[in-house]
Amino acid sequence: MRIVILGAGAGGGLPQWNCGCTQCSAARRGLIAPMTQSTLAVSVDGSTWALLNASPDLRQQLATWPALHPTSLRGSPVKAVVLTNGDVDHIAGLLTLREKTGFTLYATDATHQVLSENTVFGVLDPVLVRRETVFLDHPFSPLPGLMVTAYAVPGKTPLYLEGETPELEAMGEQTVGLRLQAGGREAHYVPGCAALPDWLVDHLSQAAVVLFDGTVWSDDDMPLSGTGAKTGVRMGHVAMRGPAGSLARLGPLQGRRIYTHVNNTNPALMPDSEARATIMAAGWEIANDGMEIVL
After folding, report:
1. Distant-in-sequence, close-in-space partners of 287: CB < 8 Å, separation ≥ 6
2. To 5 degrees, how large is the angle CA 16–CA 231–CA 226?
């Protein structure tokens, strides 16, 4: 199984177009690497690929990675797209895939409904783009030799669907993690997660690789940076630090642990930061665009 991190950033990427925070400024000056928004590509044979989420930066991401270039006059090695939720940074890239090439779109019924209710996604020709419903805890095979299982994780509905009092740690089809299995190896992709209950920690314990939500270092990243009032909790993302944070809760895991979906306001992006030193000392990595994992 080959996993390529096409985009390691959270919504807005790095640098974010309207942000002059420390990290965005450093990225513009070439001091740290920029990041496009959260998307992974997975393959078993190196010829056919599945995308995990479809970020607004997908056209750039597909152009950057040669294995995803067309191999004929009209076509693509991308045969499937699997969605973890209906967030804009995970579905907007579907509009890039409208140019009459077939693939299968996998999502829970809740996420398919989000797409169906927004008529702009009708540009995906139903004759060519087959929509398959994913059932929680039931494995499916988007590519030969690759088994994927979606499972509910604590999360919330997309921002644009929130009511006045959104449930921030809801369990259901609106936010899922993905278990990837091929060749006797297992990886998990959880780009959005609001809390880490014991059962979820146990669920991740057998994985060779865990790619986990790294949106915020501390719950108050945005207020501290002066970029906004929202906390990690309010956005539906568990912080890295703190007794209930992912560093502490996932500390016992023996496999490789990589933070992805990292927000531009996260101070851990700075190489000389205390946050980065703490993460490295705990055995974690921070994803970057183009990182490849082979299992």
Report:
1. 5, 8, 211, 214, 258, 259, 260, 262
2. 55
Cis peptide before 15 (omega within 30 of 0): yes
Answer whether 195's CB lies under 8 Å from 169's CB. Answer: yes
Nearest to 189 by CA among 146, 243, 252, 233: 146
Nearest to 212 by CA among 241, 178, 162, 165: 178
Cβ proximity of 76 and 101 under 8 Å: yes
Residue length, the chain? 295
Question: Residue 185 corresponds to which amino acid?
Answer: R
C-beta of residue 186 within 8 angstroms of C-beta of residue 180: yes
Residues in the chain with pLDDT < 50?
A: none
The ranges assigned to domains in the chain are: 2-294
2-294 CATH: 3.60.15.10
* 85-123 tens-digit pLDDT: 999 999 999 999 999 999 999 999 999 999 999 999 999
Where do runs of H (alpha helix) occur along 65-215? Answer: 88-91, 109-117, 198-204
Indicate the pTM of the whole model.
0.97
